[in-house]
Amino acid sequence: MPLTREPASPDRVLGGDHEAESEPTGRLQPTSRMTGHQWFYVFVLDGLGGMALSGAVNFGIAYAMYTTQDTTKRPIRLFGLPNTLAGDAAVTIIVQCIITWFVEMALVAHDLAHRSVHPVGWVPVPKSRRRWWLRWWFFLPASSSGSSSMSEEEPDAEAPVERVRANSVNAVFQQAVRGFSLAVPSFLLLWPISVGVLTAVGRKEGNDYVFADKWAPQVFKLILGGVLGLLTTPLMALFWLVRAGWEAGSPAGPS
């Protein structure tokens, strides 16, 4: 009986005298439920990691901003210009949300491409045209029928969800608008609390409050940046994981 050789497995690549397994390519498959690793990725790596990084960056910026100028001529006040902590808090919330949006967009795309995390596949694609604002927010395509996305009629079929790329000025602007839209509720929640806390630690002077050049401004920015990162970064990471599931062909939801 002649000797026969089994055909090579499609998962293996032969090279010389060595046999090596081929590397898997492409993104992992979406999950039908939230896995433990996804919870860890969203709330520990992104949430706590974003809190630590954002707090540290804001602390460093505040230290450089308020300790390198003559605060006897330009005192640090709560509301009064030019060194206003209330204004600083407002700018911090807006700028951090926009920057974090772009950072999370890039980081999640990198982790998906390197198969470090599964896309979320259990969230259905909103397909009703009456939910046009969801289509705008999630960068969903218009219906294949070509009619207005605000029409009351339902589309005959859904166009595939394609990957979002910030490869033009308009695309970058669209991303920045979404980052800013998260800054609005963050401002409404955190800015009044920030002002209230600062009135408790500042020195009353007329109708305003005055602060030393350290350490109150730095600790304030540390806490504000950290809390903002903890609240917004997991939401942004989850957004891109959900959308990656739709790009992989997750089923559409009810209209």
UniProtKB/TrEMBL annotation:
The chain crosses the membrane at residues 39-66, 78-103, 180-201, 222-242. It comes from the Eukaryota. Residues 1-30 are annotated as: Disordered. Pfam families: DUF2456. Keywords: Membrane, Transmembrane, Transmembrane helix. PANTHER family: FUNGAL PROTEIN (PTHR28297). This is Fungal specific transcription factor domain-containing protein. It comes from Purpureocillium lavendulum.
